[in-house]
Amino acid sequence: MKFLNSIILMSSIVMNSVHGEVKYFSKCIKDGDFAITFDDGPSLDYTKMVLDTLDEFNVKATFFVNGKNCVDITTNPTAQELIKREYESGHVIGSHTFTHPSGITNLTDEELTYQLEELNKAIYNLVGVKPAFFRPPLGEYSEDNLKIIEKCGIKANILWNLDSEDWDHNYNATQQYIDGLEGKDPKTHSFIALNHDIQKVTAEKNLRIVIPYLRKLGYNFVPMDVCIGLPAYQGQELNTNKKGITKDPNGEIVIENPQNLNANNGNDVANTAETNANTNANADANANADTNTNADANSNTNANATNADANTNTQDINKSNSNNNTTSDATTVKTSIIFSSAFMILVAFLFL
Fold first, then answer.
1. Omega of the bond prior to 131 within 30 degrees of 0, cis?
2. pTM for the whole thing?
């Protein structure tokens, strides 16, 4: 299955790119960012555990949900509460089709439209938004699929570059992370990781291991809108209140402190390096108000003491210079009198 996934990724989107109005991403646009994503939920057994773990570690993730896969979200109150919790907790909700067909490449345009629109309707009825991000089941799609995806309001087709394989008992999900990150550096790499919130190993074990591990490596966890720099829901602007996103004076979206994108990041998302020094300075000042007050007081006291010493030294120097000048002037006068007297005696001697 690992080999099959590699073939799927290579045959679909190897790098971030654009087709029409739909953008495609298999990694985040900023080096060091790490987007944890979950497919196929919600699950009545495990999604709550996943959400509890994310809350515990203060991580925002992305859920590519189905409408009628493990449970029917249009009729099950528990499933509906899980969707609402995902949204209200600041996680991003994306589309993974309504019933999770075994791939969408064999669907007619009408069938694919139904899969996308039915999920849009179900999510909107629960939280008042329609997903702008889509992940195709199995990672498979065709050029014809893309036209329908765009017509249904999707702005980004999201794949992945790290697969936990958590659904396959032949693989160790934690080891998949370790292997996938081997030799990678957060200064030059970013990731979108595929997981499933319907899998026990992810809910009970793997997240609790990989989240601290990734942080130790230096990665920054982000939801998908921050990961790719696009609004998560149809008809909305990018939420610039989220950490990592700002707007420049012209209203353009800015991903804070982005690293230079390499050649594989062939997307047209504008990335502008911007350091908000004033904001950081104000935040630091507010956070350390008492410390700064004491520091200023000590600084002023020391400065005053220093100035007093400096004034005293200056006065002493001036006195010294005054004494030296007085002595020098007296010496000059004495010298002049002596030379004058000698000159007069010489003239008198010559004429007499």
1. no
2. 0.67
